[in-house]
Amino acid sequence: MTNKNKIDSFDARAARITVLSDRVLGPPNEIDAAEAEDLLRAVNIDPQELKAEFHRRFDALAKQHAARGERVAPLLKRALADFRPGVPHSGPERELLREAQTAIRQVLRQTQQLPQLLQQLADLTLATAYRKRKELSEHDRELLDEIAEQLRNRGKDGKPGPSSKRKR
Amino acid sequence: MTIDYGADLSELAVRLAAFAQRTFADFGLGGPDAALTGVGLSPEDFAWRVLEDYVEGRLAHEASRGDVFALLATALRNDIIDSLRKAAHMREEKRSSLPRERNSSDSAPSLDELPANARDVSIILEEEEYCRRVWASLAGEHELEEMVRAILDLNLHKPRDIAAALGISPAEVQNRKKRLRRRFIEHHVFNEVRP
């Protein structure tokens, strides 16, 4: 038998086994995450240990890239985040965690920019003096009388007030 | 190349490691602590290799060609088959270079040429041998035997056809397949491989 025939024979036979396997056991994507964890535990493999080991390997890979001065690819960053030990196991929880981290980073960035933003505002005055007064000044009384007068006039013009519907 | 940002990579890793166990069982290779003879890789190593290729961009994923797990599982199985071919080739080269006893036959290998837990590749690629291992893993499980008979003897493929033949629901067929996968892998690791 020639080498080519041997290879063909090997490939053809291996392909037949894979077809048979998929017929009997189902296609690969029928194994979901919960079943996969169950299958690993059945053969004494701890899924959390496996994830921790893969995190160590991805971490080493990222360090190799950094040592060569290369940019760490987005998918490798994602792998480091997904495999990090101690993060929630469920997908939605991890998505929430990612959103929260993004929001916190944004708030911190804005906080750091606050002094520059304040400097851009001209003639900024803070009205703290009013809070210390115990009695109304003449000016305050005039303002309040003016508002009361406006409200009385609105009633006389027959404009419905906010509670008019409920009274009907 | 499309990067599937929606896929949780740690979840993919666990599914790939489980599928690697199944593929080792399909080809009658090693146990949980074993590595494929000749290349020295365990099922978890194969899962790692394919995931590393994906993360490093060496394995391109087209969204139109199914989900990312299907792509990685196919790549993983092909990698195991390639390694099995290399292992068989290496063993053959080693065998041909060994001096033979004067009275030994020309073709039959002596036992010490074969690694302790390795099977002859020509045997593990036999469909009959595969079916033998499937049946051996089902001993005493009537429901699972019934389903495998419908698949192999009646040549049924689709879950709804199998369900109709057995008078059960398609969901029950999926449930039995799940049990079958577990029985097959467990049997392989604890009965076929370990003494």
Low-pLDDT windows of residues of chain A: 161-168
Q: How many β-strand runs of chain A?
A: 0
Quote the beta fraction of chain A. Answer: under 5%
H/E order of the elements of chain A?
HHHHHHH
Largest beta-sheet characterization of chain A: none
Characterization of this structure:
The complex is a heterodimer of chains A (about 170) and B (about 200). Chain A is mostly helical and about 170 residues long. Chain A has 7 helices and no strands. Chain A is elongated. By secondary structure, chain B is mainly alpha-helical. Helices cover about 60% and strands about 0% of the residues of chain B. Chain B is globular. Chain B starts with 8 loop residues before the first helix and ends with a helix. About 10% of the residues of chain B have low confidence. At the A-B interface, helix 1, helix 2, helix 3 and helix 4 of A face helix 1, helix 2, helix 3, helix 5 and helix 6 of B.
